Amino acid sequence: MPNNQSWGIDTLALRKGQHRTAEREHAEPIFTTSSYIFESAAHAAECFANETGEHNIYSRFTNPTVRCFEERLAALEGGERAIATSSGMAAILSVCMAFLQQGDEIVCSRSVFGSTIGLFSRMMNRFGVTTHFVELQDLTAWEAACNDKTRLLFVETPSNPLSEIADLEALAHLAKSKGLRLVVDNCFCTPALQLPLQLGADIVVHSATKYLDGQGRMIGGAVVGSDKDMAEVFGVVRTAGPCMSPFNAWVFLKGLETLRLRMDAHSASALDLARWLEEQPQVKKVHYAGLTSHPQHELAKKQMRGFGGVLSFEMQGGKEAAWRVIDATQMLSITGNLGDAKTTITHPATTTHAKLSPEARAEVGITDGLIRISVGLEDVKDIKADLAVGISN
Description:
Number of domains: 2
Structural class: alpha/beta
InterPro entries: Cys/Met-Metab_PyrdxlP-dep_enz, Cys_met_metab_PP, O-succ-hSer_sulfhydrylase, PyrdxlP-dep_Trfase, PyrdxlP-dep_Trfase_major, PyrdxlP-dep_Trfase_small
Family: Belongs to the trans-sulfuration enzymes family. MetZ subfamily.
CATH superfamily of the largest domain: Type I PLP-dependent aspartate aminotransferase-like (Major domain)
CATH class of the largest domain: Alpha Beta
Pfam families: Cys_Met_Meta_PP (PF01053)
Pathway: Amino-acid biosynthesis; L-methionine biosynthesis via de novo pathway; L-homocysteine from O-succinyl-L-homoserine: step 1/1
EC number: 2.5.1.-
Largest sheet: 7 strands, mixed
CATH topology of the largest domain: Aspartate Aminotransferase, domain 2
């Protein structure tokens, strides 16, 4: 396929990365093979000596279907290279293993996914890596937490589940002034709505499980950045093996084909639903960056093309009221996943963030009355009707 960097996002999502075989297939094939045949002993030696991942050797780290997904996602994010991993958490772990060693430190937003907090505070800590958690919006706190041991700044924006927005250009400036890498979890927006690398970030991580797939079918992750940085991440995946399977990569490729269309639809329905929720007297507060009432609405408009499909709202009456709303739904799926074509609903305090202490949840604003919704592609009137049953009781 032609390597045309002037292609628009929809064309890249459909065409980038495909290298047709002699069979002249139209759709991308799935290469379900563990290894590859070499022309000679000398050819095998040449391929094994190459550390870039350009030659097919063994599907743990070189597979044509996975490579197609990597090339396509890198193009969509505006990065030089992407490395596919077995999950979103494997992507974050691979970044840590590539750039951290005993004695190093991370500065991370408090407002990140619960498993990210667990990885940094419990597991990385066991290997001598310290994490300082700071308020997402407090740039002074970010700078104060940095020292000569700091190596990474990590942020998720919009945050899970309160849709807080980080000023990526300001954080990128801070990182560059101190010689650090800024890592951005772009799961909620995807490259269809936000391009952190263009705003100065060094590395983007994804849970491909979410919107990149879009239908809740597969587990996967990815890391995107410069050729130099991704060579380090590739070394981790090659050696430690947190790799993506060819079949999963093929499913993600199909998801990327409709990414921009889906994200626009998710965003439109989420904004409609958020405005409706604000009108309900039983709802104490709605968290969605697309609302003019959101304290960072203008920043979100500046660095995002749309506001995404995830919102949360707080019920009057705490946990009892929140559970009543969730249990009254008949159409919505009660599950901790998000980014699905089907609308999902969950209670963060007892699911996605349940492993945090009550004090830690309070620090990041996750109340007992909070409900998170990942708005799907159903008719939004039907989503409202399903929620109205529990909200009005």
